[in-house]
């Protein structure tokens, strides 16, 4: 008898933890035509936002004034930063804070912890990529100077302090001054060289390679973070209930603005001719991701439970990771590098331009943060 009581209690306990979350969604069958149209409307707006900067930078007949491109660039930066904090990190914490999850999810801020871990992992990965590229390019550039090409970067650093070895083994202090002094970190495109870039093997060519690799890393990281959360945006729209119309409008603007920010970054990357198709593919992946997710969501509208335990945890984890990616990219690549290490704001009128860019970026962040009231 006692065994049966224990069994009943065990069943109740298991039932409480496995089925307490909702196993259905808010889909009510209304606005079916609008739900179908959302696949194509979101596809079109996402494509316009992502491809417009590339088209304007490549074709003169649709080339917009530089001021428009300038505004789009920094407005998109603000959109991306606000997306990280308002649309991703807040939603991730809301998913983990759902009362049905219980346990550690209610006792610890997992959304912020996962975002922080993602940020540190991303920084380490980017740091290793930079070190690898700088070392590789450094070794290649040394080969143009005779025996100096046999030295590693560490050897060069040592020689700059101790001097160069003479035949008798003694060291003499180097008197040659460096080509240029850069007060900022040598973070790829931030290194300055004043040589003809057409001459192969010169530091200017190597700096151009560094510039390309630096842009490449930041663009792919940004693309990955944006596409990562686009899947859940599409699924949420497909199975939305009474709030479908408001969510529909918000997602259309969200995809347009976010695509504009991503497309601008892709367009400003110095893509070599042998990979000239890459920016088109990156924008295409962004444009297709959310519409495909909407279509999938409509297909499984009766069986996809966004408030189930598994869906809440999965959505929370992916939103937290995406938030960490976009926070890192937004603060480091889009704010610090663009404002502090770029030549765009140097020279006459630089202060006016930097304030204008800052205001535009804040406006973009404010608009996207406002949209967070509805989505």
From TrEMBL:
Pfam families under this entry? Answer: Zip
Membrane topology, record value: Multi-pass membrane protein
Localization terms from the record: Membrane
Q: GO annotations under biological process? A: zinc ion import across plasma membrane
Q: Mainly localized where? A: membrane
Signal peptide extent:
none
NCBIfam families on file: zip (TIGR00820)
Could you tell me what this protein is called?
Answer: ZIP zinc/iron transport family
> Species name for this entry?
Babjeviella inositovora NRRL Y-12698
């Amino acid at each position: 008898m006692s065994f049966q009581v224990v069994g009943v209690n065990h069943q109740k306990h298991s039932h409480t933890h496995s089925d307490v979350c909702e196993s259905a969604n808010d889909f009510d069958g209304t606005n079916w035509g609008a739900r179908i149209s959302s696949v194509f409307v979101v596809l079109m707006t996402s494509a316009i936002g992502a491809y417009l900067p590339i088209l304007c930078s490549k074709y003169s007949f649709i080339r917009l004034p530089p001021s428009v491109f300038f505004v789009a660039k920094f407005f998109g930066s603000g959109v991306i930063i606000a997306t990280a904090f308002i649309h991703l990190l807040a939603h991730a914490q809301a998913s983990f804070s759902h009362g049905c999850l219980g346990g550690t999810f209610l006792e610890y801020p997992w959304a912020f912890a996962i975002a922080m871990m993602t940020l540190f992992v991303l920084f380490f990965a980017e740091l290793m990529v930079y070190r690898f590229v700088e070392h590789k390019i450094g070794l290649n550039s040394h080969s143009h100077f005779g025996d100096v090409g046999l030295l590693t970067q560490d050897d060069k650093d040592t020689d700059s302090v101790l001097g160069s070895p003479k035949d008798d083994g003694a060291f003499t202090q180097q008197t040659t001054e460096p080509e240029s002094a850069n007060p900022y970190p040598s973070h790829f495109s931030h290194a300055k060289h004043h040589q003809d870039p057409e001459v192969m093997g010169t530091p200017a060519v190597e700096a151009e390679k560094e510039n390309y690799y630096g842009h490449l890393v930041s663009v792919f990281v940004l693309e990955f973070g944006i596409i990562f959360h686009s899947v859940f945006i599409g699924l949420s729209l497909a199975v939305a209930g009474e709030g479908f119309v408001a969510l529909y409008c918000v997602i259309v603007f969200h995809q347009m603005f976010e695509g504009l920010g991503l497309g601008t970054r892709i367009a400003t990357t110095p893509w070599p001719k042998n990979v000239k198709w890459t920016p088109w593919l990156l924008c295409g992946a962004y444009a297709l991701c959310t519409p495909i997710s909407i279509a999938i969501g409509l297909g499984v509208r009766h069986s996809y439970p966004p408030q189930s335990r598994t869906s809440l945890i999965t959505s929370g984890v992916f939103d937290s990771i995406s938030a960490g990616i976009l926070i890192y990219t937004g603060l480091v690549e889009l704010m610090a590098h663009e404002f502090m290490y770029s030549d765009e704001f140097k020279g006459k009128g630089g202060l006016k331009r930097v304030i204008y860019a800052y205001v535009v970026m804040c406006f973009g962040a404010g608009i996207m943060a406002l949209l967070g009231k509805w989505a």
